[in-house]
Design brief:
The protein has helices spanning 59-62, 75-93, 113-116, 129-137, 149-159, 177-187, 201-206, 223-231, 264-276, 281-307, 319-327, 360-365, 379-385, 387-391; strands at 2-3, 10-21, 37-44, 51-53, 100-104, 121-126, 142-144, 162-168, 188-199, 219-220, 235-243, 249-256, 312-315, 338-340, 357-359, 370-373, 395-398, 404-406. By secondary structure, the protein is of the alpha/beta class. The chain folds into three domains: 2-53; 71-261, Vaccinia Virus protein VP39 (Rossmann fold), CATH 3.40.50.150; 283-406, Rossmann fold, CATH 3.40.50.720. Helix 5 runs parallel beside helix 6 (177-187). A seven-stranded mixed beta sheet has the order 7-6-5-8-9-12-11, sandwiched between helices. A six-stranded mixed beta sheet has the order 15-14-13-16-17-18. The protein is built from 14 helices and 18 strands. The longest helix is centred in the C-terminal third of the chain and has 27 residues, at 281-307.
Length: 407
């Protein structure tokens, strides 16, 4: 029996991806023998509606001084976070005397640097030392720590309470959400606002975006599950906004209960979730069948291209790619290498299936016939950049929302 991390009710498993490695665990050949694996199984809680992993990886294995994800590598995300910051400043900090903003999981400072440039008092809480150091170099005030109730208490003691607490693509990473919720309640001013965004469960199901499921993503949020969690701490969702990032995300606005009247967006979203069937076990069974169909189609497509002696290269060594390559058994027999612009990944091998990761320059100097687009959530930005590849006859292979060739 699996117990829900939010309400302790019995969780119903609905899909297993088998043995999986650390998604951001790019490694050298000397590390192959001791590579860590775990069982990637996902379940649904019929009581609180939370979709969650059923086996969690120790956080120190995922977030450390060699963490391989730097948010600032995407110009699209830089613009998105710039607009996020402007929204917070205009709607919640205007007229506030000496405002204070805290970000949970601040990465390399891509969001908080917008506040730093305005000389707004801020603090980033980031557990991975190397990306926290990159934020400090930018002038973003940061500490290297995992945010929880104890860290919140320390921040209040040193800096006072926060007018705004923000997080982006972080909350779903944290198995111990009860401690985080307690910390938010403790840290947030009586009239303060907590705003966070994460990949949205409804989009994952609708698009068969199963590569959003990997070790770092402990939870897959719906509004119903978020309401259930925060209501236990006298916090309530007052507004929701869909976001066109990471293949479909939701931004949640949360305040102390009774301070702000919830907008109509909350009830509208609840109604939509009922229409999507997020409260029904059958919905998740259908998702499993769609995932299995996508896996089989992608594997067959790559086998066909191999039989035609076509060169296929992976594009973007994302965390998500680990789920796809391992679940679909995609090895160097089908994929020559993965091209990536991140120096810390180059010269290493992908988790689990050990496909070499090579510098982007190699892709440019010797275009393959096909590129398997692991960074599909940045497709518009990538395809605008790769007009030469397309112009020379290159084609893209995508698998979300369906397996197809584009070119």
């Amino acid at each position: 029996m699996y117990q829900c991390q939010i309400c302790a009710y019995e969780v119903e498993p609905f899909i297993s991806f088998g043995r999986m490695p650390i998604a951001n665990g790019f490694l050298t050949p000397a590390q192959f023998e001791h590579e860590y694996f775990f069982d990637l199984i996902v379940g649904y809680c019929p009581k609180c509606k939370m979709v969650q992993l059923l086996e969690f990886v120790d956080r120190e294995k995922m977030f450390h001084e060699q963490y391989a994800f730097f948010s600032s590598t995407s110009s699209f995300m830089a613009r998105h976070f710039g607009m996020f910051a402007e929204r917070v400043m205009q709607d919640f900090l205007a007229g506030v005397c000496d405002p204070f903003v805290v970000e949970i999981g601040s990465n390399d400072g891509i969001l908080l640097e917008n506040f730093a440039r305005r000389n707004i008092r801020h603090l980033g809480v980031e557990p991975s030392a190397n990306v926290a150091e990159a934020a400090l170099i930018k002038g973003v005030t940061s500490i290297c720590a995992f945010f929880d109730e104890n860290i919140a208490r320390q921040i209040v003691s040193k800096n006072g309470h926060a007018d705004a607490i923000i997080a982006a693509n972080v909350m779903c990473h944290i198995p111990y959400l009860h401690s985080v919720a307690k910390g938010i309640k403790l840290l947030l001013k009586p009239d303060g606002i907590f705003i966070f965004e994460d990949p949205y469960l409804g989009d994952i199901l609708e698009k068969t975006a199963y590569d959003q499921i990997y070790d770092e993503h402990a939870f897959y949020f719906s509004l119903q599950s978020i309401q259930h969690l925060f209501s236990q701490y006298e916090l309530e969702v007052i507004h929701t906004e869909p976001q066109n990032v990471h293949g479909g995300s939701m931004r949640y606005y949360i305040s102390h209960k009774g301070i702000h009247a919830p907008s109509s967006s909350v009830m509208t979203q609840i109604d939509k979730e009922r229409m999507l069937g997020l409260h029904q076990r059958e919905t998740y069974e259908l998702f499993r069948k769609s995932v299995e169909k996508s896996r089989d189609q992608l594997k067959q497509l790559l086998l066909n291209l191999k039989n035609e002696n076509r060169r296929v290269v992976g594009y973007a060594a994302t965390s998500k790619s680990a789920t796809v390559t391992n679940y679909c058994s995609i090895t160097t027999d089908l994929l020559e290498y993965i091209s990536d612009t991140t120096p810390i990944k180059q010269g290493k091998y992908s988790p689990g299936v050990h496909i070499p990761v090579r510098p982007y320059e190699e892709f440019k100097t010797d275009y393959p016939d096909y590129a398997l687009l692991f960074g599909w959530n940045h497709a518009a930005e990538i395809m605008a950049k790769e007009k030469t590849f397309i112009g020379r006859g290159g084609k893209w292979i995508v698998y979300v929302p369906k397996v197809q060739i584009i070119g």
